[in-house]
Specification:
alpha/beta, Rossmann fold, 2 domains, 7-stranded mixed beta sheet
């Protein structure tokens, strides 16, 4: 029997999700939230969504339970070579400028923030490989960061289905991926080699700890789900994670225009992006 999500329960869940994940759950999405929470409530045998929230906040195994619940609440829609206009700018302008910046023997550091199941991180690695500018074994490091542990496991596995390649041509897929059973392909070792994945919550302070300053960050189509406070927290973290002069690309529907973080906005045909100013402390 369906269990309703009561008014006070919805309010408490919306507040908790805004704090924990930055998500904005307006009243119009109440039923969507109920259906996403229901599998975990039922699996735990709890009588209400209030009891589920109490379990998440105070149970000794709350961290493990949060990892189980997050995949139900996050949108992991991604595919290779998404938003081609931005990728064209990265290919023709950013990567050559970055190669000159780091110089021979240096390392270019690229980050996919909210990397989901890894398509964007591997896309960056392939763009760098296609450029031929980062040929040394330590010349490139691509890092993917996401809050969803299950998505990170899929990213690490590096196995994708045909739907994940809907933005590419078959020849591109065949160059960089090896067949893996029926309608599946696995990232080739040369693409996988510079890529690493790690957990991180973009609305939590210090998620970038342990990472050297990044030269290029892609953080696309995640802040559209954030409330204004979470956007500010995420923008501050991205600023801290970037090296001075580093580049930040958001999704087409996202903007930091009214966010008080000192990025510099740049425009190119088909793309907008941000830079952390050179010399910024």
């Amino acid at each position: 029997m369906a269990v309703p999500l009561q008014d006070d329960e919805f309010r408490m869940w919306a507040e908790w999700l805004a704090e924990e994940l930055g998500h904005r759950w307006g009243p119009e999405r109440r039923e969507i939230l109920r259906t996403r929470l229901e599998p975990r409530r039922a699996a735990l045998g709890l009588e209400s969504f209030d009891a589920l929230l109490f379990h998440l906040r105070f149970h000794p195994e709350r961290e493990a339970e949060r990892e189980r619940l997050v995949p139900h609440l996050t949108n992991n829609e991604s595919y290779f070579c998404r938003e081609q206009g931005s990728l064209d700018v990265i290919r023709t302008e950013i990567l050559p400028a970055l190669a000159e910046r780091v110089g021979p023997g240096g390392q270019a550091r690229l980050l996919s923030a909210a990397c989901s199941t890894g398509e964007e991180a591997y896309t960056l690695a392939i763009l760098a490989a296609e450029s031929g500018l980062f040929a040394g074994p330590a010349a490139l490091r691509v890092t993917g960061v996401d809050v969803d542990a299950a998505a990170l496991e899929r990213a690490q596995a590096g196995i994708y289905t045909g739907h994940d390649f809907r933005g590419t041509e078959p020849a591109w897929r065949e160059r960089w991926f090896a067949p893996h059973g029926d309608d599946a392909w696995e990232v080739k070792p040369a693409v996988r080699a510079p890529v690493r994945f790690r957990p991180g919550n973009l609305v939590r302070d210090g998620w970038w700890s342990g990472l050297p300053p990044q030269h290029l960050i892609l953080c696309r189509n995640v802040m559209i789900y954030f409330d204004p406070d979470a956007v500010l927290r995420a923008a501050r973290g991205l600023y801290e994670a970037l090296a001075p002069g580093g580049w930040l690309f958001l999704g087409h529907a996202e903007s930091l225009r009214h966010v008080p973080v000192p990025f510099e906005l740049e425009r190119r045909p088909g793309s907008l992006f941000y830079r952390r100013p050179e010399g910024a402390a």
